[in-house]
Structure formats: C-alpha cells, structure tokens
Predict the 3D structure of the following.
Amino acid sequence: MSDDAAGSAHAERGLTNSGQSVASFEESERGPVRKVQAFLHQYPTSIPFIVLLVGVLIFAFAAPGKFLSPLNLSVVLQQVTIIAILGMAQTLIILTAGIDLSVGMIMILSSVVMGRTCVVYGVPLFIAFPLGLLVGLACGMVNGLLVTMLRLPPFIVTLGTWSIFGALNVWYSRSETIRAQDIEAAAPFLQWTRTLIKPYDLMATFGLDLPFLKGWVVTYGSLLMILLAILLWYVLNRTAFGRHVYATGDDPDAARLSGINTKRTLIAVYALAGLICAVAAWVLIGRIGGVSPQAGQTANLDSITAVVIGGTSLFGGRGSIIGTLIGALIVGVFRNGLALSGLEVLWQDFAVGVLIIVAVTIDQWIRRISA
C-alpha cells in the first residue's frame, strides 16, 4: 500500500471515531432587560407615549383642577401645532440620517412672502398664497440639491442656507411687521387657521348632547396638523417612497445596491420638508394674526427637540411621524404643567434639556440590539 493510500485510510478511521454533534448558532434565552430592549427597538413610539402619559399624571396631581381642564388642554394643543408641523418636516430629513437647521427660517420666509406679496404689493391671494408655498418648496429643494450634488454634510449645508434664507427674509420684509388688521382686510384667508371650533356646540347642532366636550376649543390649524400627520404616516408606511426613505437612512449603500435612487429620494425629502414648512407658515400667520420677520426664531431647535423626544433616531432609518407628534405634545405638556406649578421659565428649559439627553441616551441603548 502506498503512503497516500495509508494516509487516507488512517484519516477515515479518525473521522469514524469523531464526534457527530452539529454546531448550533441558536440565540440563548433573552433576559428581561434584553426583552425590553428588543421591544423598544421594535416599537420606538412606545417610549414617548409612556413619557407623555407619566407627564400628564404628574401634572394632574401637581396642578389639580387646572392642568386637566378642557380649556388648558386645548391651549396646549394650540401651542404645539406649529412645532409639531415643523417637526414632521424635520422627521422626514432625520429619517434619512440628515438634519435641517433651516426649517424655521423657511417657515418665516414663506410667511413673509405670503403676507407682504398680498398686502403690500396688492397681488391677488390666489397668486400670493401658492407663491408662498412654492418658496418653501424651492428652499427645500435647494437644500436637497446641495446635499446630494456637492456631497456636503446636511448640517453644514442647512447651516449655510439658514443664513441665506435669513438674509432674504430681512431683504424682502425690510424688517417690517404686517399688522393683523391689514391681513384681515386684504387677505383674511391667511388667518383661516386661527378659526375656532367648539366641539360641544358643533355636536349640539346635530342634536347630540355630549357633556365631556364642554370647554374644548380647537382651531383649524390644529386639525390641519392632525390631517397632515395622518397623510405623512400613510406615505411613510404604505408607499414605496416611504420605504425608500427608511432604507436610505438606514444604509444608503445597501439601498443604492438594491436599486433605490438615493439622490432622487433625498431631493424629494428635502423638497417635501420645505413645502411642509410653508404650510407651517400659514398656521403661523393664523397663530399671531399678522406677519413678523422675527417670529419663530427658536423653531429650528424646537422642531429637533420634538423629533428626538418622539423617538426618531438621529442616525436615521428608525422613527415615525406619530412619535414626533407625541414628542411635541410632551414638550407642550411639560412647559404648561411646570408653568401651572409655579416654576420659572428657566426651569422649563432645564426640564426640556434633560428630556433631550435622556431621549438620545435611550436611543443609543436601543440601537445596541441591532449592532
């Protein structure tokens, strides 16, 4: 027998006596903490919902008879309307792992174009109003083109366009405020979002007596916010475009290899965000009555705050419009509750800052499950 044949026979005898067990790669039983982490990763909106519920319960005891009154809750809803709408625009961008520091300035510029074009220059409303919407759309598209074509970080791009749009705002408005009386006389439609609805009286016209609706007051602006949230939820969760947005934010290289045009998706996202900012401009005019080039100066940070607290990941690919809506309500509830409890504004800002840090920390902890 040759040496090769002898070696083969020896190897076969060794294999016969070897173990027959198969390697197993099944995951071991998860502990309670790991299960919670997995649940929160799968349902990120549950965290802000729990925080909102806890906040409502705390302030219901801290300010009994005041906080849970229908009138006060109606005020909270009206106060968060603009921030929630801007937060929805910001959510679309953050889902793609970007950020937009110019959303507030786009809103202000759009409101100035709507009001000043109509009132000062006498342009018909059916031209001035769509022109304001187009300005928001164009500003968003500029951001998207700069991010995709120049391949610059969204933070740097939108920081630059924030200054550019701000300069255009000062130039076009001439730093002049348009009074509510002038808006009402020339273009009352721009104030339409401030129209009040009393649900109890509305139901009474249909012969329904619903005592729990007494005291509630809702504006058309708040209803517009809710309708916009439903529409964007549908787009993100039931359309191909929504799946492209999540895929682009989660892993742009994998999305590109799977056939998604990531550049076109990003441009569309930024353009849509700009249009939503223009809708917020319409609500802003209704909120303050007139047009001010200085209104909404803190809207950028407030919108990011609502998105982060609402559970949307700053790293992209995970989050929801409903979470942002809840995040805006959390900020409104905490500010309102602390004010009713007698705390100063600085402690309200302190509480919101703590919420932001906690939200980002939880997001980092949840993301470890997918690492």
Summary: The chain has one domain: 45-363. Residues 104 and 299 are 5 Å apart (CA to CA). The mean pLDDT is 86. Residues 45-363 form a domain with the ABC transporter involved in vitamin B12 uptake, BtuC fold (CATH 1.10.3470).
